[in-house]
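ESCALATION

Customer reports they have been waiting on this structure for their group meeting. Please prioritize. Original submission:
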Amino acid sequence: MARAALDRLTADPQLPMVESQPLVFVERDGVSYTLLGTAHVSKLSAQTAIAMASEAQFDAIAVELCPSRAQAMRDPNAWRRIDLFEVFRSGKTGMVMASLALGGYQRRIAEQFGIEPGAEMKGAMEQAERDGKSLFLIDREVGITLKRVYSAVGFWQRAMIASGLLASLLSRETISEDEIEKLKEGDMLESTFSEFAERSPQLFVPLISERDEFMALNLRTQSAQSGARHVLAVVGAGHLKGLTESLKNGGGDAQLRLLELNEIPKPSWLANLLPWAVLVFVVGGIALGFYQSPDLGWGLVVKWVVTTGVFSALGTLIAFGHPLTILAALLGAPLTTLHPGIGIGMLTGLVELWARKPSIDELERLRDDVLSVKGWWRNRVARAFLVFVLSSLGAMLGMYVAGFQIFRALT
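Update from on-call: job pushed to the front of the queue and completed.
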């Protein structure tokens, strides 16, 4: 039946190149799957996806989207209603900043090529909803993927990824042909991290191969639950091979494996131990200082308080934080650097939002303002994120400097 649909579309004079699109047909558990490989910056791919989704014999349409990305496509202005205080309180600041960076890169592509990346996914999704067909969102939540990517690499790779995201957000350069070719085979996540993934098997697994397996399992699960028998799956062409292999050969308990792929890796024992080691070192060093001499002990306390507080306050000042925020950094950093569960950025970010409440207009301008360096300091929402990052970096640097001073004073 799927091949008959392809024949009809090929004969359509409005779609003369449909037959050139990568297609794979898979039978599994009594379900016929038609996998359409698309390019995320191709108008032809968008036209083909919509046309095939409208074919009557497909009783379900699956797209390479997770629920949050699908909602963002349905309601692109939803981010304006974000609860910023909850973002800082719940430690989701990094995720929001990563989303802004990805969104900025996506907008540059849209401006240059006149098509929004993922238009074929959006078109297929909307066509399924218009026709009343079952819609399967089969990709893993982008937040979980980013967390698994973050957990899979070391400190320096994390720093490189963060700097790469920031550079892609602020860059005004024309998107290169190499980058577009990557987007024709992968997706926004893969193209953003491709430079690192090519050199890092640890990054390739959570970013690409795990998602192929996840989408195959999700496709089978949702097909079984809905009773669908003829499913069109619209995915990036780069996923076709891995998805096909997983769909054909994957076995075992699908639900259990989906839970495993959705699990957020726990920090290593070393990562858990390090904050406590810092606490023991600092408190133990100061205690040893008091044991040797009260003057030495108080001197070490002053070194820790002044160094961590001043460095964090300096970072906040560079971000043009409110005077109250700078004071919060100065007073809070000496304590938060000793508490494994609380970061100074959480405190300074909340104080900045309280002291300078963002306007609705600034929320609406956020996606535009973060595309320029000046915009980060001009927009109060963006500046709160800057305060979070720079006060945290300052406190971290101050912690190392103060620790070194304590070590030297005791030796």
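Sent to customer with the following note: Strands lie at 23-28, 31-38, 60-63, 134-137, 230-236.
Escalation resolved.
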